[in-house]
Amino acid sequence: MRNILFFLGALATALIFAFLVHEWMSQYDDPGYVLIGVGYWALETSLIVFSVALIISFFVFYVLFRWLGWLMRLPGKIRMRGKSVKFNRSQDALISGLVDSAEGNWERAEKTLIKHASNSGAPLIHYLTAARAAQSRGALDKRDEYLKRATKDAPGSEVAVGLTQAELHLSNKQFDQALETLTKLHSLDSSHASVLKMLHQTYEHLGDWKAIRGLLPAFHENKVFMEAEIKLLEVETFSVLLKDAAEHSNAGQIQELWSSVPDYVQSMPGVPAIYFAAMIEAGAGAKIEKSLVAALNGKWDMTLLSLFGSVQSIDFRAQLEMAEKWLLEHGNDPILLRVLGKIAIKCEFNDKAKKYLAKSIGVDPTVEAYRVLGNFLLDEGDQERASECFKLGLELASAEVINSVNAA
After folding, report:
1. In this structure, what CATH number is given to the domain that contains residue 175?
2. Which residue segment(s) compose the domain that 212 sits in?
3. Mean predicted confidence (pLDDT) in 68-95
């Protein structure tokens, strides 16, 4: 319609202009004369006829060339029109596929997305969504195929495709495959927050806390988690590593690991106890005895106090004297009294041992106090009193179990 209006408008303009020229030149007595000769050919006419013919010819040639140009552009327009139709269909297919995927119609979503992916302006979304749909219906081979096609048809999308692939592997508990993909992505961009997060998840599932420890500086540098979350992760990481080192009874490894723990992590509640317990478990409690005493002098802690009672000191009498000094400030502490009883047994101060253990039970009966006293009495040959201690300890343990069950 627009072209027809343009043609009619141009024709009307040409006719009006020709008419005006004819009228203007007709007012002169002499109409003018035009002679054009080419070889043996000659054209003779009046100026009025020539001018009108020239205007009409210009219009005809102008329209002719416009039509020729339109005809030359027509194949391209047809192609563009076809592409536009296919693109619109692909956009509709993308929306339909996303809706089907959200509603759980995995197979239909997959077919719709793949059918129109090649004509889409965002083929990557088609393939990644189809890969998720394929995994949801258990078609892992199709999933991997779509991910490969996404990499091929969307150059420069290696990270996006890799993250999706790793996410799908993780959700399907394919941790080794996820780690392989994430390791490649990490080599491409070692500061990518999403890659670091997923590496943490993968290593956590695999139980590779040494690898997580290696990522801790990157977590700080790239703000992968909130600061408080990173600190909690550091505590968890070093705690697990210390326990693992304790299981191998390698005191040197434990000390080396502890020296690498940041000061603010070492000062967090509960962390020093893990280190001290690991050293005691490794048979190197004497090496940390002074540090344990300093920690208790700085802050009274029941866990550390119990660990102090388990230290295989090189001087049990000095250890007992140190614990007895704490009696001045913590005289009725049942755990301190129990620890004093244990150390007194090691010093072979039998009367002191009985006195401290009995006083500990009198303040707060515990299964551990009954056990220590019962074993001591059994070693002395007092089977009757030892049996009574074991019986009371067993009754107390049973009551604690019953109370915990009722509370739950």
Report:
1. 1.25.40.10
2. 159-225
3. 61
